[in-house]
Automatic annotation (TrEMBL):
Family membership: Belongs to the CarA family.
Quaternary structure and interacting proteins, as annotated: Composed of two chains; the small (or glutamine) chain promotes the hydrolysis of glutamine to ammonia, which is used by the large (or ammonia) chain to synthesize carbamoyl phosphate. Tetramer of heterodimers (alpha,beta)4.
PROSITE patterns: GATASE_TYPE_1
GO biological process, one term: L-arginine biosynthetic process
UniProt keyword annotations, A-Z: Amino-acid biosynthesis, Arginine biosynthesis, ATP-binding, Glutamine amidotransferase, Ligase, Nucleotide-binding, Pyrimidine biosynthesis
Residues that hold L-glutamine according to the record: S48, G226, G228, L255, Q258, N296, G298, F299
Protein name (Swiss-Prot/TrEMBL): Carbamoyl phosphate synthase small chain
Sequence segments annotated as region (CPSase): 1-177
Pfam families from the UniProt entry: CPSase_sm_chain, GATase
GO MF annotation, one: ATP binding
Organism, as annotated: Neolewinella aurantiaca
EC top class, as a word: ligase
Reactions it catalyzes: L-glutamine + H2O = L-glutamate + NH4(+); hydrogencarbonate + L-glutamine + 2 ATP + H2O = carbamoyl phosphate + L-glutamate + 2 ADP + phosphate + 2 H(+)
Length: 367
């Protein structure tokens, strides 16, 4: 396959040249990197990556092709792809298409043959920043102009762009438990984990009212993952506060964790370059055990604010790389959350117990 030239320009003026992959075009977004060795299609379709240019640290992308069963949403959600070796021939017999055909069909612009090791070191040093990929325009002044017009992730609300437009149900209405999901950009495997635990699930748009949510008569309330800055999501924080008032078991993952923290007046902050990958060690402070976790977040909850509000919030999990807060539970409420992704099979099953913990809370509450 003959590749056209492509260029990557970062907000600080750093440039990388490479070859065009996917669709020929131009795209902008905040640059981030994922350290996972596999699962590229799940990452591409994770709504939490909406608006971001993804750097894959694994040297080979595309070698096992793509298939519909590996998607986490209805389309590719990353804004652009940056990789080292882009492999069009694939080895997996059950794959349905090559990565090039898949990305072209999804309209995704990308660049390969980039020194991703140098690029990741640059991001780790300088921090997350916006970038632009183009395989159609090589006028640096024009690219800089387009890049300058791209919004910063800090202060950006994005969940309303990826949430479901209409509420929908999954599973059997006769199931033992009813779970209402506030969809801020949920992954499909989260929903499948509820279904496997005999739950009937109703997924609500991000801006659904508490009246709509409670009209489902849920036994448990879940706040999903999603993209953007939790500090720009007062509407979701207000809903989470109202959820807490229901005294129903409540569970949050990733952005849902940050929204739950904000609901009890714990602020969030933008991280230097975030956590993204499937190999991050986290310690469960309750059991003393460590877990290998899947992560995808560029914001965190304030450890200082949590320390000052020990009467409201208990820390349950900490990141063993940098000691950031990875899990909390609300004092006096049947509510807890984690910053990482237990549904993404890290470990591969280290964090499955969190779904069981949620269902156990529901059982206790119904008893």
């Amino acid at each position: 396959m003959d590749h056209q030239r492509a260029i990557l320009l970062l907000a600080d003026g750093t440039t990388y040249e490479g070859k065009a992959v996917g669709k020929i075009g131009t795209t902008t977004g905040e640059i981030c990197f994922n350290t996972g060795m596999t699962g590229y299609q799940e990452v591409f379709t994770d709504p939490s990556y909406f608006g971001q240019l993804l750097v894959t640290t694994n040297a080979h992308i595309g070698n096992y092709g793509t298939m519909n069963a590996d998607t986490e949403s209805d389309s590719v959600k990353i804004a652009g792809l940056i990789c080292k070796n882009f492999t069009v021939p694939y080895s997996r017999q059950i794959a349905e298409s090559s990565i090039q055909d898949y990305l072209e069909g999804e309209g995704l612009v990308g660049i390969s043959d980039v020194d991703t090791r140098a690029l990741v070191r640059h991001i780790r040093s300088k921090g997350a920043m916006n970038g632009i990929i183009s395989s159609e325009t090589f006028d640096m002044d024009e690219l800089k102009k387009q890049l300058d017009a791209a919004p910063d992730m800090d202060g950006l609300e994005l969940s309303s762009k990826v949430t479901t437009k209409e509420a929908y149900t999954l599973g059997e209405e006769s199931a033992s438990y009813r779970v209402a999901v506030l969809d801020l950009g949920t992954k499909q495997n989260i929903l499948r984990n509820f279904l496997r635990r005999d739950c009937y699930v109703k997924v609500f748009p991000a801006k659904a009212s508490i009246e709509d949510i409670m009209s489902f008569s849920p036994d448990g309330l879940f706040v999903s993952n999603g993209p953007g800055d939790p500090g720009a999501m007062d509407y979701a924080v207000d809903t989470a506060k109202e959820m807490l008032e229901q005294e129903k078991p409540m569970f949050g993952i990733c952005l849902g964790h940050q929204i739950l923290a904000r609901a009890v007046d714990i602020p969030t902050y933008k991280m230097h370059h975030g956590h993204r990958g499937i190999n991050h060690p986290v310690k469960n402070l309750i059991t003393g055990k460590s877990e290998i976790t899947s992560q995808n977040h560029g914001f965190g909850v304030s450890p200082e604010a949590i320390a000052a509000n020990a009467d409201k919030v208990e820390v349950t999990h900490r990141n063993l790389n940098d000691d950031t807060i990875e899990g909390i539970r609300i004092v006096g409420k049947p509510a807890f959350s984690v910053q990482y992704h237990p549904e993404a099979s890290p470990g591969p099953h280290d964090a499955d117990y969190l779904f069981d913990q949620f269902v156990d809370l529901i059982k206790e509450n119904k008893a």
